[in-house]
Every structure is written in C-alpha cells, then in structure tokens.
Design goal:
5-stranded parallel sheet, 30% helix, 7-stranded parallel sheet, Rossmann fold, binds oxalic acid, alpha/beta
C-alpha cells in the first residue's frame, strides 16, 4: 500500500516513521510543488497545496492531520470527489478541556485581577464570584465540545451548550439552531467557541450577538478566529460589556504585530496551541481507519462537504 504524506510546513518525517510502524509494509512518499504524483492508495495531508489536490482524484480517501476542515474545504469544487476524513479526538479533547478550565478558573477565581494587583504590590482580597451565576456556554457539542462541557460540569459550574442540530447531554442545558442562539447567549457568562468554521459560523459572533451576552461576560475562542468580528469584540471590551477574552485563534495567524489585540490587557493571546495534534494518537487512529476502508467497514469522522465539517 502506498500513502502520500504532505504538510504545508514540510514536517512529515516523524509521521512517516510512525505510519510505517502502525501499518507494516506501507510505502510512504512525499510531494513537492511541480512534481507529478505516483499513484497512491491514501493521502494524509495538512494545509495542502492546490497543485497536490488535483492529483488526488484516485486515492481511496484523504485523511487530515487535524480536526479542522476549513483549510481543505476552502478549495470547494477543486477538491477530488473522494472521502475526506478528519481526526476525531486523537488527544485533543483533553487539551481543550485543560485550556478552557484554566481560562475559566482564571476569570472565576479572579487570578487575572490578582496578577495585575501583584504587579503593583497590592494585597487586596476581592469579593468571590458566585458559581451559580457563572454559566459556561459551549458552542459546538462535538467530541471536543462535549469533553469541555463535562469538565466544566465536574467543577460544579452550570453548563449550557449550543449546536446546529438538537443534542441531549446529561446535566447540560442544550440549545439548538439559530432561533435559540440569543436565548443561549443571554444566559452565558463564559462563552466558549468550539464550532467549526463554515459559511454559517463566519462572523457569527458579531457586535449584536456578543452584546446579547450579559455585562461582564468572557469569551474563550479555541475554534477559528473568523467566527469573531474582531473590531466588535475590541469595542465591547473597551466599552466594559465584555470583561475579558482568552483567544487562541485569530482571523489572520500569526496575529500581525500591529493588531490592537496585542495592546488590550483584557485580551489574553495564545498562538493556536489550545489542542495540538498528538501524532502517535493521530497515526494510530488513521491506521485503524485505513484498515476499516480496506475491509469495507464504515469509518467515523468523514467530512460532510455540504455542512462544512
Ligand atoms: C486543528 C487545529 O484543526 O489545530 O486540528 O486547529
């Protein structure tokens, strides 16, 4: 079996070694711009180049080395008509839960304010926030969103979730569809986005919707930056409506040097590290899915191009 490996950052060496271990006998190959690809059974890609996609019409499936699909679906009709499979959890859900728990507790226990006080040599206990008034609202109830919701429930926070289609999650107040979005937002103190980026979620968090959050709300974005209208977020923070934001993703990455977010102390910036692909888990998962394809069994996490995830 021949498998093509391609990453926009060129880092395929370890993936090739791990895949050879997981699928003995597999032949892995790379590709460079301008080359003609030899026929392959499968492709593993991340941030693929357009010149490569047109050569993948005969593979049995394209596997993504990450969870997000926007970087491949943006090619639209230029994509070959073969199944595209994203990573399921693969070690990312626990990292998302760690990140969101850290950011939420930092606000809830007011560590952000204590950090600031300590910088000024100030010893001054602040009133505690009431946990029942600190509802966590998780947008996107896929594998990662569910893990985040469960983790925050475990700390005793009220948790609500919002998804495109109705879901039932124990101890989570579930909302579904655009018609319930305002009701979901109006009772959310900490808004966490784990939504995929689609035509419907691009700019979903605009000024009007973010104003629906109660005064003093926080935003944690670990999904895709383009879901947030960045100037609107900045305006709402400066106006005091949104108390702070922890952002791991941005419309343009790396976040450009002159971007005003860098100068806003109520915005905490991390460089797209909330959940890094755990290569060993990812390769194990992909190898099992290749075995399922070969045996003609159904495979999880096949991307629905109409839905955009
Ligand atoms: C992903 C990411 O989609 O790293 O996996 O953002």
């Amino acid at each position: 079996m021949r498998v093509l490996l391609y990453r926009g950052d060129g880092q395929i060496g370890q993936w090739a070694e791990d895949l050879a271990r997981a699928l003995p006998g597999v032949e892995t190959l790379g590709w460079q711009e301008g080359e003609t690809l030899v026929p392959c059974d499968y492709a593993l890609v991340w941030n693929p180049a357009p010149g490569l996609l047109s050569q993948l019409a005969d593979v049995k499936a394209i596997f993504l080395m990450g969870a997000g699909v926007d970087a491949i679906l943006k090619f639209g009709d230029a994509l070959p008509a073969v199944p595209i499979v994203r990573l399921g959890d693969a070690g990312m859900a626990v990292q998302m839960a760690e990140y969101v728990a850290y950011a939420t507790l930092r606000y809830f226990r007011r560590f952000d304010e204590y950090e600031e006080q300590a910088r000024h040599g100030l010893w001054a206990p602040l009133p505690e926030y009431e946990k029942q008034a600190f509802t966590i609202g998780v947008m996107g109830l896929g594998k990662l969103g569910l893990r985040v919701a469960e983790t925050m429930r475990g700390f005793g926070f009220p948790v609500r979730g919002w998804s495109r289609t109705p879901k039932e999650v124990p101890s989570v107040d579930c909302f579904a569809g655009m018609e319930s979005l305002d009701a979901f937002l109006s009772g959310t103190r900490v808004l966490v986005s784990l939504l995929p980026l689609t035509l419907d979620t691009n700019n979903l968090l605009d000024r009007r919707r973010m104003s629906t959050l109660p005064k003093g709300a926080y935003l944690i974005n670990v999904a895709r930056g383009a879901q947030v209208a960045e100037p609107d977020l900045l305006a709402l923070i400066r106006a005091g409506h949104i108390a702070g934001a922890t952002l791991d993703v941005f419309r343009n990455e790396p976040l450009p040097a002159p971007h005003p977010f860098w100068d806003e102390p109520r915005i905490t910036i991390t460089p797209h590290i909330s959940a890094l692909t755990v290569r060993a888990d990812a390769v194990r998962q992909i190898a099992l899915k290749i075995a399922a394809f070969e045996a003609g069994y159904p495979v999880d996490d096949v991307v629905d191009r109409n839905l955009g995830y």
